[in-house]
Amino acid sequence: MWTLAGLVVVLWSLRLWGYVSLAPWLSVPVALLGLSGLVAVVLAWTPGALVPGRRRATVGGLLVVAVLAALALWSYFQVFTYPAYGTDEIAFDQYAARLALHGVDPYLRSMAPAFPLFHVSPNGYTFTLHGRPVTSLSYPALAFEAYLPALWLGLSSQAAIWVDVASWAAGAVVLWAVLPGSLRPLAIVLASSSVYVGYAVGGVTDVLFVPLLVGAAAGWDRFVTETGPRAWRGPVLLGLASAVKQTPWVVVPFLLVGIALESERLHGARRALADSARYGAIALGAFLVPNLPYIAMGPSAWFQGIFTPFASHIVPAGQGLVALSLYLGIGGGSLAGYSAAAAVVLVVLVSCFAATYPAAKPVTFMLASIGLFFATRSFGSYLVMLLPATIAAATTTSAPVGRARARHWRAVVVLGALAAMVTAGFALGSPSPLEMTIESVHTTGQLATVDRVRVAVTNRTGHTMRPSFTVEDGGTLTAFWLRAAGPAVLRSHERAGYTLLAPSYFAMPSILDGFQVVAFGSSPDSVSSTSSYLPSTWRVALEPDAIDHVVRAGQRIVVRAEIVDRLDARVRVNGIPVYLGQIIYAQRGLEYSEASIGAGPPGETPAVALTGPDGVATFTVSSPYVGGDPTYFEANLVAPVSSYPYGYSPILAVRFGR
């Protein structure tokens, strides 16, 4: 464990090393972190007689400080190099905090001004199935009230990001404090994991509830034996965590059942219900306290806001079961089926938890993530953000005593699993309503993106469809594309062609990677998708790849352009045209160059040559003129059907001189 802790400190050194050219002083903490991690690994295997327990604890504390310092430095450079907010949720929350600071109820205002204010990319918006961005505040009040102290102190730019980073750091410290000594390195490992630090800086506000939920999880079963303020700690922190985002809500049923069963074991059935109700009432009270001002000002707007994620027909997304419909086209005919599956799975999990208790006690907090895996929106944050609390609960509660509570717990588990499989099968078995095929694409040339797509769509259902289209690029749904041609309403079993235009540069997928066109419908809510379209499978490599000397005017050089596949293996195809272009990237802009490619006149671009049997096209390049700036050569291929250029080679810079 301590070896892992030392390793992640070394990894922090490597992470920060990439920024030393931007800030040379960073070489000092880079060196210190690397040395600290190596020393920690050595001490981990040093006999206890040489390094007593107290000194090991001191070293562990220093490693925590080192990791938190590294997190702060790394976060600073992430913000410094890309200051825009990455998600709408963090932009909404900081904007809502600004409104609340001036006495305005944010639940009664549109959050749309947050988009330009925090420079959120359109791909970071949350869209409804009709392609409209969600512009209402969608979280409980503590989600934005957490940022009020920073705004009171006068922070404005990236204030929310720094609060999120501080919250993640606080979660690591709390986890370190509650874990047994032998397991404390887990806090260092989790605090340094790429997925968590990426979420903290990237605008995923789930990190705000982590320290609260870890505190609630630590020794949660002691609620039935403690009295006074000590007993209130768990439910109060759970209520506050639930006042940040909706994810902790899913944990509540498991805890209420767990409290009841713990109390029943110690005090009997009558006391069990009372203790569970008392725990729930305290948690509910803590949840309501930060929300009360907004409930009073606009109860309907507040209620509608916090339930927006469940009732606004938002596009499906995430890495859960719904990914099979989004990317493979399996199912998709009923998005409500995923919501039903998630609800059934949660009920099944609670039932299995109760039946197998206390055997399932260590994973009380993690079971909720399994239920979220089946939801229509099952982001990675929903699947991993409960892990710190799970570790805290599993290592600080009393060990399970006795066997499973229910005599027929196996039957409960089997029947529950069957129910979950049936509902999940219904979601995956409802065929998508539209059959879609990408017929052609139009690209931006050297920009290497797709800005127009032609799609053939067939309505396979017995009712009309009003499809809205977007593109899936790298696991992300872009802003919805514009319909330039094609009917707004597609009748039953009708086939039509649609021409779709990218709404912005951000929505244009790269021709270097695959993408899919995705269509959403309503009544019922559904998703359909094309198969993955890969515009570019070959590319061109130039030889030589660099010329590190001045080429005399009039001297000819030979440039070989070979076609290679995605794994850089030469493709031996004969008669394929390869295009070699030239340009000068001058300080004040583009300039026409005057080199000769082959037998062409000076300045002609592009020139074309056919590959031989070995898949190589050969060009001769020369220039009769002496230039101040290098001439830049780049080769590419052209698709035979859609005629778009692709497979651009690395640029070869040639400086012609005397």
The major sheet is characterized as: 6 strands, antiparallel
Can you give the mean pLDDT? 91
Which word captures the global form? globular
DSSP summary: helix tally: 22
Tell me the number of structural domains: 5
Structural class: alpha+beta
Distance between the termini: 63 Å
What oligomeric state best describes the polypeptide chains here?
Answer: single chain
**Number of β-strand runs:** 22
Radius of gyration over all CA atoms, rounded:
30 Å
Strand content: 15-25%
Low-confidence stretches: none
Helix content: 40-55%
Q: How would you characterize this protein structure?
A:
The protein folds into 5 domains: 1-81, no CATH class; 83-306, no CATH class; 320-378 and 401-430, no CATH class; 434-529, Immunoglobulin-like (Sandwich); 539-657, Immunoglobulin-like (Sandwich), CATH 2.60.40.10. Strands 14, 15, 17, 19, 20 and 21 form a 6-stranded antiparallel beta sheet that branches. The protein is globular. It is built from 22 helices and 22 strands. The chain starts with a helix and ends with a strand. It is an alpha+beta fold. The mean pLDDT is 91.
